Write the structure tokens for this entry.
Amino acid sequence: MIATAERVLAPGFWTDLLTWHVPAGGVVEAFQAIACSDQEGLVVPAAPRGVAVNLDVPGQSWCPGCLMLAQAK
């Protein structure tokens, strides 16, 4: 599933967790709308890439709303 990452920062500004979202609309470089929200999105999103629906990588997880959408496809 094509997804874009939201970086959740820990104190000290290093990435603590990557949360994967399904992009809504076209993939863009400035503000990326996300499928789980009509109003929120990612500012300066990471480049989209293929992410397994059954993701099992330490420090990474799917957004629960986007995971449901990804599993439905």
Notes: The beta strands are 2-9, 15-21, 31-33, 41-43, 49-50, 60-62. The chain is about 10% helix and 35% strand.
